[in-house]
Specification:
mainly beta; 8-stranded antiparallel beta sheet; 18 strands; 10-stranded mixed beta sheet; 259 residues; 2 helices
C-alpha cells in the first residue's frame, strides 16, 4: 500500500508538471494587412550577402517583399539591378524578435526550380561565441531546386558545420511542397532542438556537452526568411532562367514560450 501511495503521488506530480508546461503565444505575424512587411517586426538584408549567391537583396521594394491576401510574399525575379541579374528579399527579426528557447512555427509554400534556395532559419542575435558557425545556426527549413521536393533541416555549430562537412541534419521528401502550405516547426529546449514538418518530428539535436562548440544554443536567436538564387549550394547545377519569378508564400509566423 505504501508503494502504491508513492506511485500515485509521483503520477499526480508528473501530471501536474506536464500540465504546467504549456506553450504561450508571445509573438505572431499573421500578415493581415497590405504593403511592405511591418517595420516594427522585420528588418531587411540588402545587397550581396553570403555564399556567392547571385541575387541582390532589396530593401522596401514591393516587387521582392510584400504582404497581400493574408500572406507574406518573398519574390525572386530575373532582372538587372545594381550589378546583379536577379533580385530577391531576405527579412529578419533581429532586435525586434529575439528569443531563448521556445516553439517556432512558420507555415509556407516554397518556390521551385533549379537555382532556388529558400530558407527559414535562426541565427544568434549577438556573436557571444564568435562569428559563424561558433554562435550556432538553426535551419528550420532549407530547399534547393535541383533536389526537388526535398526539405532539409540542419544544425551548425563550431564543431558541426557545413564548412567542415560535419553538420548535423536530415532531409525528407515532402509532397506538394510547392503548391500546398506546410508548417515548419522548431521546438527549442535547454537540452535539445526538435524539428518538425506538419507535426512529424524528423530531427533531434541533443545537448551532448557543455562545450560551446557543440552546444552554443543558450543565447537568444532571431528568425530569418529568404530566397537565395544560385550560390555555393543552390547554384551547384546552375540557375534556370525560365522559372522566374518564383515566390515563397508565408501564411503565418508564430512564436511560443513555456509559461
Amino acid at each position: 500500500m505504501k508503494i502504491l501511495n508513492i506511485l500515485i503521488v509521483f503520477l499526480v506530480c508528473y501530471s501536474h508538471s506536464l500540465l504546467a508546461q504549456k506553450w504561450e503565444l508571445v509573438w505572431a505575424e499573421e500578415f493581415n494587412y497590405k504593403g511592405l512587411p511591418d517595420s516594427a517586426k522585420w528588418n531587411y538584408e540588402e545587397g550581396f550577402i553570403r555564399n556567392n549567391e547571385a541575387q541582390f537583396y532589396t530593401k522596401n521594394r514591393l516587387g521582392n517583399s510584400r504582404v497581400e491576401g493574408g500572406n507574406l510574399i518573398i519574390e525572386s525575379r530575373k532582372e538587372d539591378f545594381s550589378t546583379a541579374k536577379y533580385t530577391s528579399a531576405s527579412i529578419n527579426t533581429r532586435y525586434k524578435g529575439d528569443w531563448l528557447y521556445g516553439k517556432f512555427e512558420i507555415r509556407a509554400k516554397l518556390p521551385k526550380g533549379v537555382g532556388m534556395w529558400p530558407a527559414i532559419w535562426m541565427m544568434a542575435t549577438n556573436d557571444d561565441y564568435g562569428g559563424w558557425p561558433h554562435c550556432g545556426e538553426i535551419d528550420i527549413m532549407e530547399s534547393v531546386g535541383f533536389d526537388p521536393f526535398m526539405v532539409y533541416m540542419t544544425c551548425h555549430t563550431g564543431m558541426f558545420n557545413a564548412a567542415k562537412g560535419t553538420q548535423i541534419g536530415c532531409k525528407t521528401k515532402i509532397n506538394h511542397v510547392y503548391d500546398q502550405f506546410h508548417t515548419y516547426k522548431l521546438e527549442w529546449y535547454p537540452d535539445r532542438l526538435d524539428l518538425y514538418i506538419d507535426d512529424i518530428k524528423y530531427l533531434t539535436y541533443p545537448k551532448a556537452s557543455e562545450d560551446k562548440e557543440i552546444w552554443p544554443y543558450d543565447k537568444p536567436h532571431y528568425l530569418m526568411l529568404n530566397i537565395a538564387v544560385g550560390g555555393a549550394w543552390g547554384g551547384m547545377k546552375g540557375v534556370d532562367d525560365k522559372i522566374f519569378p518564383q515566390k515563397m508564400i508565408v501564411d503565418h509566423v508564430r512564436v511560443y514560450q513555456m509559461k
